[in-house]
Amino acid sequence: MGISDLQIHLAPKTVFELAPGVPVTNTMITLWIVSAILIALAVVLRLRMKYLPSGFQNFAEWALGGMRNFMSEVGGESAKRHFPIFITFFLTILFSNWLGIAMGVVAEEAGFLRAPTSDVNTTLALAIVAFLYFEYQGMKAHGVFGHLGHFVNIKALLTKGPMGAVDFFVGILHIVSELVRPTALALRLFGNIFGGEIVLTVAFLLVAPLFPLPFMGLEFIIGLIQAFVFSTLFLTFTALNTAHEEEDHEVIAPSKQETPPAVQVQVG
Fold first, then answer.
1. CA gap 244, 241 in Å, rounded
2. Distance between CA atoms of 250 and 248, rounded to whole angstroms?
3. Average pLDDT of every residue of the chain
4. Which segments of the chain have a pLDDT < 50?
5. What share of the chain has pLDDT > 70, as a percent?
6. Are 151 and 170 in contact (CB under 8 A)?
7. C-alpha angle with apex 195: 194 to 201, nearest 5 degrees?
8. Fewer CB within 10 A of the end CB, N or C, for the chain?
9. Angle CA(231)–CA(96)–CA(203) in degrees, nearest 5?
10. pLDDT at position 8, please?
């Protein structure tokens, strides 16, 4: 196949159908493989866990410990409670990116598997899960009405006069910002991975198979960066929604300065 015959398909390839209208795509199969790999690694790590770590356990503890420390730097100590879902996002996206790069496919003729993160359906699903999570954490931290009050500030509109109208308008803008977050997460990840696979496919078609290896190395680094960026933004949005805003309290000055009672000393 020459470069003139190259066909780039945005949609994933349907491999078979579980039922009429229920397709199984190549990105879904790759995601199943990624899930199986991560589950197998977790089981092996759990079964071979020792009090004195060595080998793979030592590396895993070092890597996971570093990620937990990074979380505390970004979102504070309280952010560590979000570690399970944070590391799930990171590892799933990382292995999806790397496995897709290893397969090196975008065109249907180029191979069977394709990176799940090069499918906008997958990245949108990940972004929706992230969105639901940090919105739930915001409601958990501030209460349902307290969290929704950041977007529709009726109280400020009724009590602060003209400045309340400004606060109300800012809340409406906050709604737009909140809805843009999952869209940005999904499209950023999809665009980088899909574009990278296009570059690799064209490189393999234009030059000898060994020459694109530097491009593959670069895409492996980009895959790591994109997994890190998605997970970090998810953590940042969660921390923003769960942060407790400083409330203004009126300081009432005492009318009289209280003095400690005099101490009488009797000399007998």
1. 8
2. 7
3. 77
4. 1-3, 105-110, 245-260, 263, 265-268
5. 75
6. no
7. 90
8. C
9. 115
10. 62
